[in-house]
Amino acid sequence: MSVKTSSTVYVAVLVLIVNLIRVETTVISQSAPRTDFDSSSNSATTLLSRFIKNSYPVKNTIEEGLRTANLNNTCSQHVLQFWEQIKGLIGNDTGGDDVFSIESWALQMIDAWGKIPEGLLSGHINVLGDFDECLAVRSPVGNDNADPFQGKYCLIYTIPKIDAGLDQTQDSKPGPVHKGERSIENLLKLLTIVGNSEMPIVPSIGTCLPSTCSDDEIFSIVSALLSNLNLLPITSYCSTDEAPKLGTGAITTISFLGVLIMLVFVGTLVDLSVLYAYLPPPPSSNQLFQICKAFSLATNGQKFLNTETSKNDIGCLHGIRFLSASWVVLGHTFFMGTMQPVWNLVDAYSMITTSVPILFITNAPVVVDVFFVMGGFLVSLTLLALLEKTKGNLRSLPMVYLHRYLRITPLYMIIIAFTIFVFPLMGSGPTWHITKTWAGFCEKNWWKNLLYINNLPIYDGANDPLDAPCHGIAWYLGVDMQLFILSPFLLYPILKWKRLGVAPLAILTAVSIVLPGVLTYVNDYPPLGKPFQSATSKYSQEAYSPTYMRAAPYLIGMWAGILYRKMQKLSITKDYRLSPLQVIGAWLIAFTIGFTVLLSAHKFMDPEYILRRGESAIFVVGTRVAWAMAISWLIFACALGYGGWINQILSWRPFVPLGRLTFAIYLVSMDVQFLFHFQYRQPISFDVYHMVNLYFAHLFMSCLVAVVCTLVVEAPFMQLLKILLPTRDGKKNSSKVRGGSNDTEELPRIS
Hints:
Blueprint: H1 6-31, H2 42-55, H3 59-68, H4 73-90, H5 98-101, H6 104-111, E1 126-127, H7 131-135, E2 151-160, H8 184-195, E3 204-210, H9 215-226, E4 231-239, H10 248-275, H11 287-294, H12 297-305, H13 316-339, H14 345-354, H15 359-362, H16 367-389, H17 397-421, H18 433-450, H19 475-497, H20 503-523, H21 539-544, H22 547-573, H23 580-599, H24 615-639, H25 644-650, H26 655-659, H27 662-677, H28 688-724
Parallel strand pairs: 1-3
Antiparallel strand pairs: 2-3, 2-4
Helix pairs in contact: 1-2, 1-8, 3-9, 10-11, 10-17, 11-28, 12-28, 13-16, 13-25, 13-27, 13-28, 16-19, 16-22, 16-24, 17-18, 17-27, 17-28, 19-22, 20-22, 20-24, 22-24, 23-24, 27-28
């Protein structure tokens, strides 16, 4: 919807809302004197009849639509049968006997439709009807009845219809939205903003019609019904209670998971039998036993719960991992709250665009840079140690890359297969179609995730709605894998040529800092992703997820790892330590930078804020670099003993096993939230307390699912890698990495 047509939208929606309010007022005025419900059995049915009449003032339109709609014979017959039953309710008479004169299936069907909502001025623009009541509709079977049919629920998304006679050339723009104000004018301005956002929020209505009608036929019928309300249906999503069919992909995925579970069962049984001497202990060279043991819940569970760490372990990384993953879940919880229908859109808009404390949630995407900094830091430690050990020999790199790929891909691909074939079968609801769309993205583009190029702007959603990133949050893995592949070629010169060798890393770091700012300025990207933003629909693909836009924190983390190794050697050889004044000053700077980055997004959260050209570029460059430096100091200080009580908290022993869950939490948390939010039958009330409660529930469930994924998939495959994948020396891979999680971490990953 362009700015030029906003004034005509105002007129169309204003007429609609005034009519709806008039209808509600009519219902109240007509039924107000009838308060003696107990004195007459007809009183309640009279009120219901009047409400339905006034909720659907479209009798002539329905009859005309049924005459002009191009319906198949069966659909037409069933719709007319339905219409004959309910037309008395929608007629102009006000009798109360109409409810008793129609059959129950027809009353259920009309009752399941979304109706004029209360709280319209609060932003209650999604009237979902009764999903389950519609699906439960069954037409009677009789000699004089047509073929039986069921109820078919369709959620219809609409936009205001622009009158062709109105001036559509006026270049008008909605004025400021008064936060929290409930008025027609304010709601119109808000609808214009959220309707133009990257993830538009538009009115919707739940409908219920015979299942013998196709989706297109129902869309045609509803278009006729809504034509006199100045609403234009734009798309629809339909459901019936027909049991979903298991396709080949679903059967294959479920069978594979069943095999994994069987292997876990057998492996555990064999392991326990040896442990408790029911079977003689096999020799350590018995590879078959080692493979069985790799799937043992007993062995993997013991390793998972082990909180012991090596002397070279950087303990704070465990706490940073888990708390950062928890922060990601928190941000996604509030994000999900804006994706599903809400009762109080006006309040949600006010909260998200004006609240300062909520910036710690709406600005949560900065937490991804924490993972990038940790990834770069650990890569510097592990690869420099490897290069020193091999005296700069790069022949082992292919094996390092292979190990890295096989380390994270099995669970990743299983989650994607589950998302495509199984997850859409697990729920239902008015907005469950979103999960099917999510699965459609993966069905088309899963191979890009397999190649770890899913974060690049190589999608054509304008011509193909399903050409979008698969498992959207996995863009991080694409960036991380690409930078991991590049990192040895940046670290090798440092080992080979010392000071001169830092030039490639220094040049690339400078480019990675400047380039996002230049591209943001040239393409006029917004400074950050935010709810209700009016931005290019390609922001996420072009400005948020590409490697060249996100590399700076990773490279800064590499610098922190290099400096850490240098300081570690100095502390051993020369007993060098930072002074207390230097440490206090560094901590003060880091805290100041961190809070400034989080709070500096406040003015940008308001969609009405007019950005000056270049302001976004400065914000993008400044905040990412500053945040990465603050996180680098946090890791650096804790690793070298300057962390004090902060390091004690982050190195808390329970964080060791919890930190091992972060990869799985990252992968499954969105599916866990989808399963909950998109089965809602009615809009929710969006408020902080509600969302925080949901956050803790989502975090707990994500951890629970992550434990299963870790013990059944991730840990067994890691053990198989150690058994089957040799190192360059021909030995089995069993190396560990500083900052890792004992036996469950070898190379940096999502951690």
